[in-house]
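Structure, all two chains, one model.
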Amino acid sequence: DSGVTQTPKHLITATGQRVTLRCSPRSGDLSVYWYQQSLDQGLQFLIQYYNGEERAKGNILERFSAQQFPDLHSELNLSSLELGDSALYFCASSVDGTDFYEQYFGPGTRLTVT
Amino acid sequence: AQKVTQAQTEISVVEKEDVTLDCVYETRDTTYYLFWYKQPPSGELVFLIRRNSFDEQNEISGRYSWNFQKSTSSFNFTITASQVVDSAVYFCALSEAGDNYGQNFVFGPGTRLSVLP
């Protein structure tokens, strides 16, 4: 158990809808990262937040957004969903903002768009 | 554009054999990071190592070792005396550092390692 929690574990929704994925980092970790893993695109880094501020942005679509709250949990919002958004979404946390170092991953949220 | 190639799609070895997973990368930047991650059958990702482009020293952690060679743009991963628990998909990744931090973070396609008893 990495100490990173993600909810929900599974999510099934229809095209055009909006969903929110939640991530709680390990106690004491200030950074949260989001990744997407799909059959078509493989693994992709989406975005990183550090202590409430956006730290780095990767291949995140404009339809997607994220934020990190004062209690350091993070949410990834996916809107106008398309079939191609079906994927496993991972979050990871690390102690500080040091570039992608010593990350601990959550179990992922599997999103199915029908 | 940055690129990571893991030419070995699948590898099977028998327990206790040594195995090397290859990773070749392309980047125009002089400052970058290289990574290895493990994804066991349970599905969770596990961070294994991050290497700075200015640090070409090889690293050893238990049965794991990494060989970073800038001259050949490779960052290979060797498991010594493999065990069944090493069975997983292993991903190599590359990220720009500096002002472009986080941009163009690229994963390789992964190598599926099966260690047979």
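Chain B has a mean pLDDT of 92.
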